[in-house]
Amino acid sequence: xxxxxxxxxxxxxxxxxxxxxxxxxxxxxxxxxxxxxxxxxxxxxxxxxxxxxxxxxxxxxxxxxxxxxxxxxxxxxxxxxxxxxxxxxxxxxxxxxxxxxxxxxxxxxxxxxxxxxxxxxxxxxxxxxxxxxxxxxxxxxxxxxxxxxxxxxxxxxxxxxxxxxxxxxxxxxxxxxxxxxxxxxxxxxxxxxxxxxxxxxxxxxxxxxxxxxxxxxxxx
Length: 220
Known about the structure:
The chain is α/β, with parallel strands linked by helices. Helix content is 34%, strand content 19%. Strand 6 (134-138), helix 5 (152-166) and strand 7 form a beta-alpha-beta unit.
């Protein structure tokens, strides 16, 4: 039986009722909180920063999976660790010295991961995989929630899963963007371990039931 992790994206939460939505995730079958940090430079949008993450950490009972969609993320690694990040993922495209940045994340006490944009091939990670707790594959163009899932993702997941298995690693594969009940099982079948779901969860009539259904269909 697979243990697929579900990580609701807080970007889709109601920020006027953020504590309510945090408690909902705490009380659900979700495994992590997915935290999208955008700087308006690397991606064409600005989300939230350290004070909001610190506030989430105060109430969260599950790990914070912090996805940095920012230029030169190495400038802020220690600060994100201090405000409560448990996992920090940085974009391959956003940092010049990726190996150094991953080591920096680990030195700050967090698990380290790499993110690939939609059209970045997984082959670029071949030499860095041993340093990665997780690889996040974007299944949309990063920067906005609610986008349509891109079918190219399935083949990327299969290629990455083979690379990980060939190297004898236990690196997790996370998918972010357009995840719903229409593609979740297929993503897990292709080799994914962690599914981020934002609009699909928070836009549902009953988010707790929606999360439970995602868990059920991907843990078979």
